[in-house]
Amino acid sequence: MHEQGELSERRARWSGAFSVVSGALAVLALFGLARSVLAMTYLNVRFVDEVDPLSRAVSYYVFVERGADVFDATLGMVATATVTLLVGMAQLRVRLGTPAVLLFVAWSVALVLCALFPTDNAPRIETASGWIHQFAGASLFVTLPLAGLTLARSLAGQRGWATAARIVRGLALGGVALALGYLVARLPDLLPWWEFPAVLDLRRISGLVQRALFAVELGMLVVLAVTLLRSALASRRVTAGPAAARAETAVRDAGGEYAASRETS
Predict the structure, then answer these.
(1) d(CA 152, CA 175)
(2) How many CB atoms sit inside 10 A of residue 97's CB?
(3) Mind listing the pLDDT tens digit of every residue in the chain (265 residues)?
(4) How many whole angstroms separate alpha carbon 25 and alpha carbon 32?
(5) Which InterPro entries match (predicted)?
């Protein structure tokens, strides 16, 4: 019995340590996502005259003065926050599912590729860097919404994650709708030989649709980070409870032994 008690205590300590690590990773992810939101807001406001936020893609911020550093750092920060979230959830033994993990990793890799390979500042894609950026950027519209839908199914039945699953599913569906909307808005570029009526040429709002999609995707990550932090804190309280009770019992027993020894003396 004594050995079983020690084993349970060691498991509780390890579980508590994992909870602390998961909580710290959640805080780091939230910090990175908050920085990313501020950075993108800065780019949209600071360079509104150079890059029209309604019609131009966010990729063109790399062509304005000092915009490339902020833009690339933002993409890297979001990729890092995503991986941090995955590690934190795994530490807390949240069941993610292999498909969801692969989609999240693909999203993170695509973010890094978009930062490393800028698009071409021209009406047509002319360089290998531009093509890599285009394909990586296109995958961003697909991978995270699909990852959210896949992950939501896994989270729905797990304690403490049901609410997050519903929110993530809703945001993921919104992301799918916005991704389709962006595709429709860019059809004149994808089908240059087709004469689109002016009323159907939605390129004038394609930048806005892209930014809305990016905001939805960041929202999904924020929901996961907040839920991870709350779950880590709850897990820490659960593991700390028995330890505190054992400490209180030990103090009470020691006090009783001391009182008994005083009486006998």
Answers:
(1) 14
(2) 14
(3) 444 444 444 444 444 555 788 889 999 999 999 999 999 999 999 999 999 999 999 999 999 988 999 999 999 999 999 999 999 999 888 999 999 999 999 999 999 999 999 998 887 888 999 999 999 999 999 999 999 999 999 999 888 899 999 999 999 999 999 999 998 888 777 677 777 776 667 778 899 999 999 999 999 999 999 999 999 888 766 654 444 444 344 434 444 444 445 555 5
(4) 10
(5) DUF998
